[in-house]
Every structure is written in C-alpha cells, then in structure tokens.
Amino acid sequence: MVVYNFFAVLAKKYGMEYVEFNFILVMISTLLIGFVVFRLTRRPSIVMSLVFIYPFIDNIIQKRWYYALGISVFGIYLSINAKSRTSRTVILLITALIACQFHTGAVLLFTLPVYLLFTEKLQNWITILVVLIGTLGSDRISGIINAVSGGVLADKATLYFTTLAANSSMGHYLFWAAWQVIQTVIIYYVYKYDSENKFVKFVWRLNVWAMCIIPLYMFDPVFTRLFRIVLIFNYVAVANSFWFNKRYEISRAGLFSLPMQILITGISFYVFDINSKLGIDAMIFAIFKNNQFLGLF
After folding, report:
1. How many CB atoms lie within 10 A of CB 8?
2. 3-state DSSP assignment of residue 220
3. Which of 167-176's residues contact partners 24+ apart within 8 Å by CB, and which partners?
4. Between 33 and 2, residue with greater pLDDT
5. Nearest-angstrom CA–CA distance, 190 and 79
6. Core-most of 34, 83, 162, 169, by most CB within 10 Å?
7. What distance separates the 2 farthest-apart alpha carbons in the chain?
C-alpha cells in the first residue's frame, strides 16, 4: 500500500486531519462510482437507491476498501469498451495494481484479466473446479496464500483464515454461498432476455468469475467485499432491464429481476448491518449522529 501510505504521510506533513484526508479520498471514490453509474444507465436513481440500502453502510466503515472499490469499478468500466483483448487485460491489471495500493484484498482482482482470457466454456469449468476444490480443500487455502505471497500476507492470512474463521460453520458458509448465487441467478435471468447486449453479457461473465470467491466464505463473510464491486454493475444491469411504456407494458426481465434484487438487497442490509455484532447503534446510527457533513445543516 505504498501509494496510500505516501498520501497519508503527505497529508500529515501539511497538517491535515484524518477526517479531512478521508473526506477527500471518499469523495474521489464516490465520484468515480457515480460517473460509472451515470454513464451506464438512464435510471441512476434505482441504482443509487440499491447502493444506499446495501452496501452503503459497510463502505463507510471499511474505509480503505471503499477507496479500492471506487478505483476497481472505474477500471472495470473502462475495460468494457476496450478496443482489444490486450487493452482490456492491461487496463484490468493496472486497475488491480492501483487498487492494491489502498487495500490488500484487491489482490484478488489480478485473477480477473487472466480469467477473461479464456473462452466462456473454459471459464465456466474453471469456476466449477475452483468452487469444488476450494470448498473441499479449504484447510489448505491459508498455506497456499502464504506460499504465493512469499509470506508478505502472513498476518492477513492469520487474521482471515484463523482468527475470524474461529466463528465460522458450514451453515454460515451455505448461507453466504446462497446469498451470492441468488444474485448471480438474477443477473442470469437478465442476461437470458438480453444476451446480445454487450454490457449485460460482460456483467454475466463478471458474476461467473466472482463465484470463484465462494470457497472463501468457509472462513468469514468479510470476503463478500470483493462481490460488492460486482454488485454495482449488477444494480445497473437490473435497473436497465426494467422499463414500462404508456400502454402499461412492463419488461419481463425487469418485472422479476428488480423486485428480487430489492428483496435480496434488503435482506443484505438486515444481515450485514442491522443484525451486526456491533449493534444497530454503532453500525448505523453512529454514522448519522457523528457526521460532520450533516452537522453543517
């Protein structure tokens, strides 16, 4: 996280408080996400409403991940319209590299450009194998990460795969796996009705890739943060699928996908935020009570 540390030291040198430093980075990330949303849909209000339900609260709390999330969303957006496969790969690699400067969890993004180099059929098989082998051999994941990183991520591996995993169970794993699979099914339904749409097709493939992180839910739902990047594009695809005209005709895809997405987003808000171990006061109300921006009004 060289870049983040550089900016943090620079801000401190010029007497900037952490609140001010955080505000600048949050604003940049928010503008990047907002730019992408407004470029991809004519219904930004639907997308942003879903974002505010979930994962708005989580993004506020996990600050450095939010910086990485904004960079990731913007980089993936740029890759969608890349003129060639090589250009797309370079854009995604640079995106992953920059995002990693703010949060080490973004290292998983390096798998995306490699994954997209394969044919769709091979991508499907890779996802199936990763989910099966990763689930059955979950006890070896920590060792593999330490070996690949040369021990650089040893502390993180201990935190995620030992400390946090102490409270995990098969029931938790199945719940989080179902949580992501249901949202992937929603996107598949949208894709089924608009398979020729370049953006929808890309979002579908993005979801298939994201299923590779499911084995990590064996340890802790903290890994759902990577899927939050995908969620931004899911919300856009769902919003775009919903339309109706003056003759009261409503799109089939939208009639199913939007209510289902609202439902699962509401459930996510309850499970992640309202039902959090921190409690609703610390998790939600504190954000609005201790808010300098809202204090201006």
Report:
1. 15
2. coil
3. 167/220, 168/218, 168/219, 168/220, 172/217, 172/221, 173/135, 173/217, 173/218, 176/214, 176/217, 176/221, 176/224
4. 33
5. 21
6. 34
7. 63
Long-range CB pairs of 182-186 (<8 Å, 24+ gap) are 182/260, 182/264, 183/207, 183/227, 183/231, 183/234, 183/261, 183/264, 184/208, 184/210, 184/211, 186/234, 186/238, 186/256, 186/257, 186/260, 186/261, 186/264
Strands (E), 30-75: none
168-211 per-position pLDDT tens digit: 778 889 999 999 999 999 999 999 999 999 999 999 999 999 99
Helix or strand (DSSP H, E) at 33: helix 18-40
Query: Per-residue confidence at 151, pLDDT binned at 50, 70, 90?
Result: low
The rounded distance, in Å, linking the Cα atoms of 232 and 238 is 10
CA–CA distance, 46 with 43 (Å, rounded to integer): 6
Q: What angle do CA 160, 179, 191 make, to 5 degrees?
A: 120
Q: What tens digit of pLDDT does each residue of 95-115 get?
A: 999 999 999 889 999 999 999
The per-residue pLDDT for range 38-85, each reduced to its tens digit, is 999 999 999 999 999 999 999 988 889 999 999 999 999 999 989 999
Cα separation, 32 vs 26, whole angstroms: 10
Residue type, 244: F
* 32-51 burial code (b ≥16 CB/10 A, e <16): bbbebbeebbebbebbbebb
Integer Cα distance of 43 and 244 in angstroms: 13
Q: What is the DSSP letter of 176?
A: H
Residue type, 153: L
Check if the beta carbon of residue 63 is closer than 8 Å to that of residue 22: yes
Three-class SS state of 244: strand
